[in-house]
User: What shape does this take?
Amino acid sequence: MSFDLSMRVDRRNEPRPDVVVIRRKHAGRSPVPVEDALLAVEVVSPTSTFRDMYDKAKVCAHAGVRSYWVLDPLQDRLTLTEYTLGANREYEQVTHTDDLFVTEQPWKVSVDLPALTARKNDLLAPDGQ
Assistant: This one.
């Protein structure tokens, strides 16, 4: 398992998503070939909003990463936006939600965003509230 995983696109592009799901045969290797990435996930941070939402997405799409998710914890409620690779090698938005997120791609998964929002709020609440 690697916690600092880059994806090698070419000699000038080596994006490092917050979460990347790869084929098992490349576990422990960094950078991994981008064609082995099944899913890239970015968690938006205050200092990298544009880079996470646009720059990295453009590189990943051009490289052929089929599924790209953006999790935004900066709003009052956590949101998740799911993108899938279109025929023109650009991402097309599939869904944007702050509710229960369910998808079949790249496998069946659900994410309870209201529960995550509540957990975030509990963790950030001042003591005694």
About this structure: The mean pLDDT is 83.
